[in-house]
């Protein structure tokens, strides 16, 4: 709780008091933040009430054991969402968080209330469904540039860290906030900073499993957890890791392009070197950290997923992962994998981007990813 209060004060100070490091400051940006911050804080306060009620009404969540979770991490924009949704279709084995649960119901109490309202809506003939779809499109439509978003879709569970202000998504409205950027090197933080966040995250996963089934394996997808990898290994020693990678010359502009829409909403340009260069530095650290961390992890507990290799044969790749981790594959999931293989081979990006569009060149970017290039043969151009 101390962490939350401290960061709330810092966010408010950066929003309201000079000197403002988040410039250029415009009336639109200031009014937007003054509107959104109270709404955001109200939502988080609601979640904390839910957490407190959990301690009275649903204390059994504490006894849940997070067994053999699968963490999908890696470079952003390298197929993590696609792979997440492929594994999520193995519903006999996995449970994963959906966007509505993350944003509206991280506590057991809230989850029970929303599930009850959903049952009532269905019993009445779904009169509120159309309104919900409208709200989803209005509030989340701008995120389609990152990937298609629906409240019912599996989504990154780093949203669970919003109540303690440890979610890297906060970099979009606060691109110069050092407390947010420190999360991009999480494993390098002191135990005093890391331990409360990890304890909160573990409790959040236990709450999810308490509702969806303690016998399930937790499936988590978060590129922003790449700098958390060592901490996650410490917290969940029986966990497995899938690390997605892609050509750096494609990853860098793709990430910058995905952030651009949000940057415009909050009144800045992601091509501004002050912002752009921080993201490039972050990606460089991600690649080095993934390689060095996983070098010490047994092969039976991790695997890399190069985007082109994975998409060219989704079925073969996933079956290879199951075999490596010692998991059995049921016939129903095998059939779904055949569908995903067709979808993977036929995928074409709807987005267009280039390094040059953000004032960068391959000559200055690629050397920063030399370890990744050497390991996977990236940066060599067409064969």
Short description:
The protein is of the alpha/beta class and 383 residues long.
Helix-strand pattern:
HHEHEHHHHHEHEHHEHHHHH
Lateral arrangement of strands in the main beta sheet: 2-3-1-4-5
Would you tell me the overall average pLDDT? 87
Largest sheet: 5 strands, parallel
CATH superfamily of the domain at 2-14 and 66-95 and 159-376: P-loop containing nucleotide triphosphate hydrolases
Classified by CATH, the class of the domain at 2-14 and 66-95 and 159-376 is Alpha Beta
**CATH fold assignment of the domain at 2-14 and 66-95 and 159-376:** Rossmann fold
Q: In one word, what is the shape?
A: globular
Strand fraction equals 5-15%
Task: Report the end-to-end length measured between terminal Cα atoms.
Answer: 54 Å
By DSSP (H or I, 4+ residues per run), the number of helices equals 16
Radius of gyration of CA atoms, rounded to a whole number? 21 Å
The number of E-state strands comes to 5
Instruction: List segments where confidence is low: pLDDT < 50 over at least 5 consecutive residues.
Output: 15-22
> In terms of structural class, how would the helical and strand content be classed?
alpha/beta
Q: What share of residues is helical?
A: 40-55%
The CATH architecture designation of the domain at 2-14 and 66-95 and 159-376 is: 3-Layer(aba) Sandwich
